[in-house]
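Hi, here's the filled form for the chain we discussed.

Project: internal
Contact: R.S.
Residues: 229
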Amino acid sequence: MKLAADLIAFSRRLGHDFARPELLLRAVTHSSLSSPTRPDNQRLEFLGDRVLGLVMAEALLKADRAASEGQLAPRFNALVRREACADVAREIGLGDVLKLGRSEMMSGGRRKEALLADAMEAVIAAVYRDAGFETARDMVLRLWGARIEQVKPDARDAKTALQEWAQARGQQPPRYVEIAREGPDHAPVFTIAARLETGEEAKATAGAKRQAEQAAAAALLKSLHRSPS
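And the returned structure, exactly as it came back:
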């Protein structure tokens, strides 16, 4: 099969010329547009998640030969979690070539973090199936780039760190409460409060619930670290 012009341009940004272009088409096809003759990217996403995980595990072991498993795990999570995958997807314009159903397109699917992250993993799997692990690994390392070298030694995300802070003091896990949702359906803005059972809280606003929760947790942690524990 022959790729459309937008996918040809995307494959160039990706740095891979597909011998089996149908794999790329499948990788960018969301379930909202799938049909019996046009499979979606969910199976590729499943595979790509594992390929990405292996690439990052190898890279981290190579980058810090003295680190323990406990030190490597949060760095690994920071590099493979949804936010990281979506950031890479935005950098290469993956949202522009997603194949979406009308309802998903109208609701801003091209900008949704979950869709971008899932599609990024599917694209990784498509390259893996098209050209093998070494080619997929080289592509991932190139796209993730400085993120691997710059990942923080303690790379726990804010929600994890806040939960551990609460558990260490015998408290229940933090609660995340949606305070407000504004803007159109295709580009909502969420305000979330992170709350501890002892009454401390902090709020944050972002274009995705997960981002707002992380920002609220980070703000609350900062406030807690300024005050006596």
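Let me know if anything looks off before we file it.
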